[in-house]
Amino acid sequence: MKKFSFLTILLFVGFITNAQEKKWTLQECVEYALENNISVKQSELDVEASEIDKKDAIGNLLPSINGNASNSWNTGLTQNVTTGVLENQTTRNFSAGVTASINLFDGLRNYKQLQRAKLSKLAAQYSLSQMQDDITLNVANSYLQVLFAKQDLEVLKSQNSVTQEQLERTQQLVDAGSLPRGDLLEIKATDADERQRIIVAQNNIRISLISLAQTLLIKDYENFDIVEYDYDIFGAEILDNSVYDIIERAKEERSEIRIAEANKEIAQQNVEIARGAYMPTLGAFVNYNTRETGANRIEYYDSPETSITEIGYVESTGERVVAESNNPAVPIVTGPRPFIDQLWLNDGMSYGFQLSVPVFNGFATRNQVKRSKIDVRRAEYQLEQAELDLEANVYQAYVDATGAFEAYEAALVAAESQEQANEYATERYDVGLTNAFDFSQSKLRFENAQREVIRAKYDYIFKLKVLELYFGVPVSDLRF
Predict the structure, then answer these.
(1) Which of 138, 256, 266, 335 has its CA at a distance of 20 to 30 angstroms from the CA of residue 450?
(2) Which residue from 443, 444, 442, 424 is spatially nearest to 433, judged by alpha carbons?
(3) C-alpha angle with apex 474: 468 to 477, nearest 5 degrees?
(4) What is the pTM of this model?
(5) Gap between the Cα atoms of 64 and 295, Å rounded
């Protein structure tokens, strides 16, 4: 038993350790965000709601069938449902029926509403696609910010390790009297400044991780971390296209334009639906109904006895003329017929057509048509504005990506130059040809150049991804 408990504890501890050591890749972050982000979920609900609206529109084209049933008790002077005679009684009455109706013609409004519902679903799907693109870019940007912060920290630590070596060497030279004490103080000041920047960089990592975790709706900030991977630059070939080619491709592929186009078509369908109110509507119906009562029945039976009645006399002879007739039927009160028998005996059907012709409704239909036409014009303006905005955004993204590429190349050149300058300054400092201040400044410039390379690289990667999305590259095909 103790052995089993010990193994259980080990497994539990191992599980907790694995959970804490999990590091997220960019692909995992994007997939998790697309599955759990609240904005994405709301867009998915919009798609589900549009599907229900579409089913409603389909249902309007189908017949409707309704059943009804009632059971009531009447006390006092009420009509006997079987004889039609008013009687002072207490009765129970049951009735039931089924009615089927169908709209044969309504100015094609139901058909137009179905077309509108299809367009609304399409627009909702485009909105979901746009939301997924936005979330993907947001997650990628946050992820790259964390990577930049981590690599920035590595640069600072690497430079500080060099400073530590120089500090030890300078201490030895100062103790030996080869260097002035001012050089040691300068190196110590550089070390303190680098340590401070390391602390700031560590805080930046935590802040960046928390920001990414909040984007993913992950609350375990303490154990959240990402895979430290040096991403390569993919997709640079997109810059071989002209900005105008990318703009034309974006107009064909981007959801912003598709949403605006769908909204315009929806507005046009609304005009057709409003115009349908000018047309007459024709419907057909059929109804089956029956009834039953708990009231007693009054039945009449012919009497077997006959009676002789004088009806006249013969004038010439004075002889009486008589007639023999049956006695009047005898009323007999009996209980109600069986329930099922009454339903069969008392049933009936009705069927027919219903025609409604609009004549005048206070200009309501005309005004609705005018409002719908205004909505069409508004949707046209929104489409035009969406195209203009897309052109501006694509052009800005193209300029940003081109500028980021040039900045990255310049940063590489600068870093290489600063590396050579730092090596030269180190050599001069080692042989006492320069002081600690000049050495620290050269080292700081090299450090800043390294950090700028990292920043420019990830900035360039992100802006390439933005441009790829505008070019119509699906989120799943983005390469990092």
Answers:
(1) 138
(2) 424
(3) 85
(4) 0.75
(5) 34
Please give the backbone phi and psi of residue 225, each rounded to the nearest 5 degrees, phi first. -155, 165
List the one residue out of 125, 144, 152 whose CA is nearest residue 30. 144
> How far is 395 from 160, CA to CA, in rounded Å?
42
Residue of 361, 384, 364, 360 lying closest to 372 (CA atoms): 364
As separate numbers, helices (DSSP H) first and strands (DSSP E) second, the chain gives 10, 8
- DSSP per-residue letters across 349-379: EEEEEEEE----STTHHHHHHHHHHHHHHHH
For residue 46 the two structure tokens come to 């919009």
The answer to whether 241 and 471 have CB atoms below 8 angstroms apart is yes
DSSP string, 199-225: HHHHHHHHHHHHHHHHHTT---TTT--
- How many CB atoms are closer than 10 A to CB 431? 8
What's the distance, Cα to Cα, between the start and end of the chain in Å? 51
The span from the CA of 27 to the CA of 50, in Å, is: 30
pLDDT (tens digit, 9 = 90+) per residue, 438-466?
A: 878 888 888 889 989 988 998 998 888 88
Which residue do the tokens 């940007």 mark? 141
CB–CB of 251/387 below 8 Å? Answer: yes
Residue 94, amino acid: F
How many whole angstroms separate alpha carbon 450 and alpha carbon 162?
A: 15
Query: Radius of gyration of the chain from Cα atoms?
Result: 46
Q: What are phi and psi of 289, to 5 degrees?
A: -140, 160
Sign of torsion, CA 395 396 401 405?
positive
pLDDT tens track for 293-321: 877 776 665 656 666 666 767 667 767 76
**Mean pLDDT computed over 177-203:** 84
Separation CA 445–CA 426 (nearest Å):
13
Nearest-10 crossing angle of helices 181-215, 436-470? 20
The helix (run of H) or strand (run of E) holding residue 69 is: strand 64-79
Q: How far is it, in rounded angstroms, from Cα 291 to Cα 293?
A: 7
Task: Count CB-CB contacts under 10 A for residue 215.
Answer: 18
pLDDT in tens, 250-294: 888 888 899 999 999 999 999 999 999 999 999 999 999 998 887
